[in-house]
DNA sequence: AAAGCGGGGTA
DNA sequence: TACCCAGCTTT
């Protein structure tokens, strides 16, 4: 680069910083977390804003701050309260990490959000972007805060064709963003950068004509602003067919349905849901094809029994879809009836388990008989017999139970009365009022509300 | 370095 | 309906 080019580059940077800051002072939105410079508010808002739009976050932010007004209040709250407050916002590890970090702040920093880089960065759930955002926005420290908005803005203004999905690109952008921060204005400037990305320099159709730095935007001058930033696209989510059970209680559980808690870690960790299991593909059918109704009910019955839940599918109720970034669940939801005679909810004592196993044996035998005759008649109800769990007559029940690919509900109490702390999967019978106490992923929230609506005669 | 982790918006 | 958005943790 010649000396002249370097000088032009320098002027371009100064122009950018000056005009962007000026624009921000005129155009900034009135957002709840901008009304105070409370580091805790900034922190909570930044965690919520990860992968989430401002409009979605605002109501959650108000509720969260009202419920947990201080770091200490958050640190001292029961985890399920925090999860319930986050319900519907997605990426629930953010909520658990945030509370974990609040406890870090309470114990290690006397309840005050730290203002040095290493300390902030050490907080659970705080990575390079969020650390920079907290340090700059809350403490006006000259740290870069490079998120997707910022990378889009910078890649266009400086016409950078680096793949923003790659790690080294973020490092490069952070170096550049740090150089751009005007002396003493880190807080406003970093927010300005993100505000521009959100309001003007949008992914699809950037509003260049209203942009405060359009005159020196290299991407626009080259006419390639809409093809920036360069980014390798993620692979598509894999489809997963699942069978879900909406179990209607009887007797003591009349008017209630059964929910279970997910495992301590992994997908939707510790959230509550209707029980559901993978639907194996029908033999010889196209992958992803729906299981025939009778076969699906049979399969679901087996899953229920093996999970220690005494209930029987009665009819297909509805299908529901839940999309993650990496999986698409298609849930076929079956109404099921609780079968009386065996106490629910779990956990099972050893004797109870033996009873269930006996019933499972009966179910397996019944299945074998039905399956055999159905096969003889040439119908299509034999599609449960996938590898590893063919329930042929005389099959060893224990081996069926143990080698079945279905993950059982972990509802057993060990012989000494203790529970498995890692995979304890609690179950509960709930009515609509009880829903307020449990955090559900959106799809189950909608299913349960819809179900109770029908029960209460509010809808068809 | 790549994969896992939700939910809502727009074209 | 198809596609887009995107930061941190874990592996």
Automatic annotation (TrEMBL):
Statement: the UniProt record of this protein carries the keyword Iron: yes
Sample GO molecular function, one term: adenine/guanine mispair binding
Gene Ontology biological process terms in this record: base-excision repair; mismatch repair
SMART domains from the UniProt entry: ENDO3c, FES
Catalytically driven reaction(s): Hydrolyzes free adenine bases from 7,8-dihydro-8-oxoguanine:adenine mismatched double-stranded DNA, leaving an apurinic site
HhH-GPD domain residues: 48-199
Cofactor(s) for this UniProt protein: [4Fe-4S] cluster
EC number: 3.2.2.31
Leader sequence segment: none
Keywords of the record: 4Fe-4S, DNA damage, DNA repair, DNA-binding, Glycosidase, Hydrolase, Iron, Iron-sulfur, Metal-binding
PANTHER family attached to this UniProt entry: ADENINE DNA GLYCOSYLASE
NCBIfam families in alphabetical order: mutY
Known role: Base excision repair (BER) glycosylase that initiates repair of A:oxoG to C:G by removing the inappropriately paired adenine base from the DNA backbone, generating an abasic site product. 8-oxoguanine (oxoG) is a genotoxic DNA lesion resulting from oxidation of guanine; this residue is misread by replicative DNA polymerases, that insert adenine instead of cytosine opposite the oxidized damaged base. Shows a powerful dicrimination of A versus C, since it does not cleave cytosine in oxoG:C pairs.
Entry similarity comment: Belongs to the Nth/MutY family.
Annotated protein name in UniProt: Adenine DNA glycosylase
Species of the source: Paenibacillus wynnii
């Amino acid at each position: 680069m010649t000396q002249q080019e370097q000088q032009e580059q320098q002027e371009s940077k100064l122009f950018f910083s000056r005009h962007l800051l000026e624009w921000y002072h005129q155009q900034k939105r009135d957002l709840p977390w901008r009304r105070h410079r409370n580091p805790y508010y900034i922190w909570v808002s930044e965690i919520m804003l990860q992968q989430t739009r401002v409009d979605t976050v605002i109501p959650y932010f108000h509720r969260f701050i009202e419920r947990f007004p201080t770091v200490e209040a958050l640190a001292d709250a029961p985890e399920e309260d925090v999860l319930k407050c986050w319900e519907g916002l997605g990426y629930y590890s953010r909520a658990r990490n945030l509370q974990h970090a609040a406890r870090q702040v309470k114990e290690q920093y006397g309840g005050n959000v730290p203002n040095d880089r290493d300390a902030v960065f050490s907080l659970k759930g705080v990575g390079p972007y969020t650390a920079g955002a907290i340090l700059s926005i809350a403490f006006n420290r000259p740290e870069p805060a490079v998120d997707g908005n910022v990378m889009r803005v910078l890649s266009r203004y400086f016409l950078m064709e680096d793949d923003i999905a790659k790690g080294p690109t973020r490092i490069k952008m952070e170096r550049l963003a740090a150089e751009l921060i005007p002396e003493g204005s880190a807080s406003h400037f970093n927010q300005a950068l993100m505000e521009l990305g959100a309001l003007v320099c949008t992914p699809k159709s950037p509003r260049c004509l209203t942009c405060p730095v359009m005159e020196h935007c290299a991407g626009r001058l080259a006419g390639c602003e809409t093809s920036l930033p360069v980014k390798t696209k993620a692979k598509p989510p894999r489809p997963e067919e699942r069978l879900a059970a909406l179990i209607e209680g009887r007797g003591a559980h009349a008017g209630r349905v059964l929910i279970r808690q997910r495992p301590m870690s992994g997908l939707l960790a510790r959230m509550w849901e209707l029980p559901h299991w993978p639907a194996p593909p029908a033999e010889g059918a196209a992958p992803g094809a729906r299981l025939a109704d009778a076969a699906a009910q049979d399969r679901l019955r087996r899953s229920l029994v093996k999970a220690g839940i005494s209930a029987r599918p009665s009819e297909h109720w509805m299908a529901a879809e839940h999309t993650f970034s990496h999986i698409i669940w298609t849930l076929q939801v079956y109404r099921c009836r609780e079968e009386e005679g065996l106490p629910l909810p779990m956990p099972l004592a050893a004797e109870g388990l033996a009873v269930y196993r006996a019933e499972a044996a009966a179910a397996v035998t019944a299945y074998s008989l039905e399956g055999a005759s159905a096969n003889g008649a040439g119908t299509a109800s034999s599609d449960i017999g996938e590898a590893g769990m063919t329930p042929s007559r005389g099959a060893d029940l224990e081996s069926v139970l143990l080698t079945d690919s279905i993950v059982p509900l972990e509802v057993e109490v060990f012989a000494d009365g203790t529970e498995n702390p890692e995979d304890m999967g609690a179950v509960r019978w709930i009515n609509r009022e009880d829903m307020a106490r449990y955090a559900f992923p959106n799809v189950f929230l909608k299913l349960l509300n819809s179900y109770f609506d029908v029960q209460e005669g509010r809808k068809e």
